[in-house]
Amino acid sequence: MVTMDVDNKFFSVGLMILATLVVAKLISWLLMSRSGKRLPPVVNTWPVIGGLLRFLKGPIVMLREEYPKLGSVFTLNLLNKKITFLIGPEVSAHFFKAPESDLSQQEVYQFNVPTFGPGVVFDVDYSVRQEQFRFFTEALRVNKLKAYVDQMVTEAEDYFSKWGDSGEVDLKYELEHLIILTASRCLLGREVRDKLFDDVSALFHDLDNGMLPISVIFPYLPIPAHRRRDQARKKLSEIFASIINSRKRSEQCENDMLQCFIDSKYKNGRPTTESEVTGLLIAALFAGQHTSSITSTWTGGYLLRHKEYLSAVSEEQKNLMKKHGKKVDHDILSEMDVLYRSIKEALRLHPPLIMLLRSSHSDFSVQTREGKEYDIPKGHIVATSPYFANRLPHIYKEPDTYDPERFAAGREEDKVAGAFSYISFGGGRHGCLGEPFAYLQIKAIWSHLLRNFELELVSPFPEIDWNAMVVGVKGKMMVRYKRRELSFD
Ligand code: HEM
User: Fold this and answer.
1) Which residues span the membrane (predicted)?
2) Number of the ligand 1 atom closest to the C-alpha atom of 439
3) 296 and 179 Cβ atoms separated by less than 8 Å
């Protein structure tokens, strides 16, 4: 009798647990299906370090494998973090438009702090950062750009005047070098360009080499590259402090970004400190230098590979020379639409920043092109990829083909699918502030080359250097040149 009772008790408790589980499952299923929302699918990996291994193989390799299987929204478990990828304009609008309180850059871009230095950009609250980005915006206004362009043109003329009548060069190296010189002139100022160029570029080199993939996870790891980075940052501070003081003492005023940052004031009337000015200049150089030199190199590679496009850009230069003579200024560069499209297309295929990141502070939902809805919980890292998104076949016809005319009136493939279809410069709230500067600089260089040289690619078309932090051209890009004057009669 007693045993029967005990059995019955166990049976009823078991039944209750089972019933509770079934009801709980049913409620959650009902809630889920009523809202129609779900968590994104998860990349299938080995436990614990599987996600890390997939990521280390290369994020683009992982995207190529997973996008066809999982679609435009999916999550990768990376150690203790969850990274949710949002690929394509249909699902990435929130990524670009969300306020900093919902999706922030601060945590994911922290690794820049030891390079840029204290008190600037990702080391300060968003309200201060916004003010500092206002300084950038002001330093890159059209009236300032007009003055920078004259300096860009002079630098290109001087640089290429040192080439012989004919010869062979590594165009990648040449363009990198010219862009550092130009950036020094327009951004860092006359003192650095004329007197301190070698010292300052060596220090920037150390800063650059101190930003390694490992620095993203452990920015303060005591390794020689980080020690050299910290020493270089300190020396740069001293050099700029002395330049800033001497400008202030002599009340001399120059047409460069350094001057703009010296003259900038926060809303409460406080002027920038020397350390902030140095940090903002380093940030400008890091944002603009490799990105621009990589883009000018790919542009050259594609134009020299595709004779029809080379003829089209040369023809445009001839027409502009007929109209304006040899002069090149801001407004004339702005008329170079064919060259603009050629650069834009090289940048579509090869955005130097292949992955953009944010940290999510509140839940949000996205809807895919197929109508599926996903909830992305707060706490996830959210990522999108300019490299992958710029080659989506439902947006770009034959996406791996170099075809600058896809941006011409009548086609405008980057506009047809709506905003955020072309994201080499990011977009929305944190879109690149240096885009016009970058185009002007690359156009100034290429209009000079097209007008003054016959060029031929003599090495094989370059591959992509996936190992670099800013992804560019692997190895050399050898080019044979012959001096000539483009005839425009
Ligand atoms: C071809 C050249 C360039 C490319 C491809 C490029 C690309 C980008 C991208 C993708 C972002 C957005 C990052 C994100 O959303 O996380 C960005 C932001 C930014 N870029 Fe550029 N950039 C270029 C040149 C420049 C230059 C020349 C400057 C300045 C002189 C510059 C200054 C900035 C700044 C200040 C931001 C931050 C904007 C913000 O967060 O509000 N960039 N750039």
Assistant:
1) 12-31
2) 1
3) yes
pLDDT at 25 (0 to 100): 42
Q: Looking at 51-65, 284-298, 359-373, 414-428, which range is the least confident one? A: 51-65
Residue 147, both tokens: 């003055």
- Cα separation of 388 and 348, whole Å? 10
User: What is the number of the ligand 1 atom nearest to the C-alpha of 257?
Assistant: 30
| Mean pLDDT in residue range 331-338 | 98
Which two three-digit tokens encode residue 67?
Answer: 């996008």
Backbone angles phi, psi at 195, to 5 degrees: -120, -30
Q: In the block, which residue shows the tokens 């959210």?
A: 382
Residues recorded for the chain? 489
Dig out the tokens for 139 from the structure.
């330093």
Question: Which of 201, 196, 199 lies closest to 178 in space, CA to CA?
Answer: 201
Q: Is the CB of 281 under 6 A from ligand 1?
A: no
User: Which residue lies with its CA nearest to atom 12 of ligand 1?
Assistant: 426
Binding residues for heme: 432
Residue 10 has pLDDT above 70, yes or no: no
For residue range 91-121, list pLDDT tens digits in order.
999 999 999 999 999 999 999 999 999 999 9
Ligand 1 pocket: which of 109, 286, 432 to mutate (most atoms <8 Å of CB)? 432
Domain boundaries in the chain?
1-36, 37-483
Cα 291 to Cα 130, 294, 306, distances in angstroms = 22, 5, 23
Q: What whole-number distance in Å separates Cα of residue 334 and Cα of residue 323?
A: 14
* Pairing of β 478-483 and β 103-104: unpaired
Q: What residue ranges in 283-429 does DSSP mark as E strands?
A: 356-360, 364-367, 373-376, 381-384
Beta carbons of 121 and 129 less than 8 angstroms apart:
yes
What percentage of the chain carries pLDDT values higher than 90? Answer: 86
Q: Report d(CA 113, CA 126) in Å as an integer.
A: 14
Amino acid residing at 297: T
Q: Which of helix, strand or coil describes residue 107?
A: coil
